Amino acid sequence: MRVVMFGYQTWGHRTLQALLDSEHDVVMVVTHPKSEHAYEKIWSDSVADLAEEHGVPVLIRNRPDDEELFMRLKEADPDIIVANNWRTWIPPRIFGLPRHGTLNVHDSLLPKYAGFSPLIWALINGESEVGVTAHMMDDELDAGDIVVQHAVPVGPTDTATDLFHRTVDLIAPVTTEALALIASGRTDFTKQDRSQASFFHKRSAEDIRIDWNWPAEDLERLVRAQSAPYPSAFTFHKGKRLEILAAVVSEGRYGGTPGRVFYRESGGVVIVAGADARTGRNHGLAITRVRTEDGDEMAATDYFTSMGGYLTSRP
């Protein structure tokens, strides 16, 4: 098939590489300009560079809504568009233009975790598995019929970076399997159960601010989800920002006020956590490694020289 590819960052790069390695003919690539957004500077392999290395025409767009792009697409005469990590809305006249429509590759197990940063949100929420879905694009965000879906398990110590590497390796097989089904003439794909759908927004600094009213189990997953190279989860101690680089759920149960710097345990320093911490039934979050506002990294036991005081969400 003649393929036009819409994509960005490493997800788009892996998709384009899979297409270039396949029997299909990539006739044009559309990608976004480079971004300074914190999350878009991570996993930022260039789709444009890869396309140009293979002599594939490239168009750079924030949004695919101009007449020049539409005319270039018509001239390219694609059988299908394949999209992965395209960051803005693709209008119906674009996604419906090719003979076989548009295949979108999304890094979640749809219908759950449509939208942005699905791996991070899924890890924070304690999902047991994550994956990649190839689905046909329609008018609703990430809602079209599922062509192929592959899953991988989430381990008890996995970080978002671990899950990225595990799922990005699924992109090539999911894409090529889906295209093979479409090329064979298949159109009877799996409808999504929209009652199970969930939608998530782009992550920002507000999403990594620690709220000590969260249970320790949720906070431990937040710390793992915001592992390097993602921005670290942070709190404030004596008015200064403190990034939490590593933590575990405490062995003991600790009562009191959320955010209290309380006890040395599990190789770290336990912070009281959970909105109902006063009951004494909660585990705490044992912080093991931190980074100060000045950029110094150290063991939490070295940073907290005495117990007492509080960690807070604001200075």
UniProtKB/TrEMBL annotation:
Annotated EC: 2.1.2.9
Residue stretches in coiled coil: none
Family annotation (Pfam families): Formyl_trans_C, Formyl_trans_N
InterPro entries on file: Formyl_trans_C, Formyl_transf_N, Formyl_transf_N_sf, Formyl_transferase-like_C_sf
Domain Formyl transferase N-terminal: 1-170
Enzyme superclass (EC): transferase
One of the record's GO molecular function terms: methionyl-tRNA formyltransferase activity
Keywords: Transferase
Chain ranges of the Formyl transferase C-terminal domain: 204-306
Protein name: Methionyl-tRNA formyltransferase
Organism from which the protein derives: Streptomyces kurssanovii
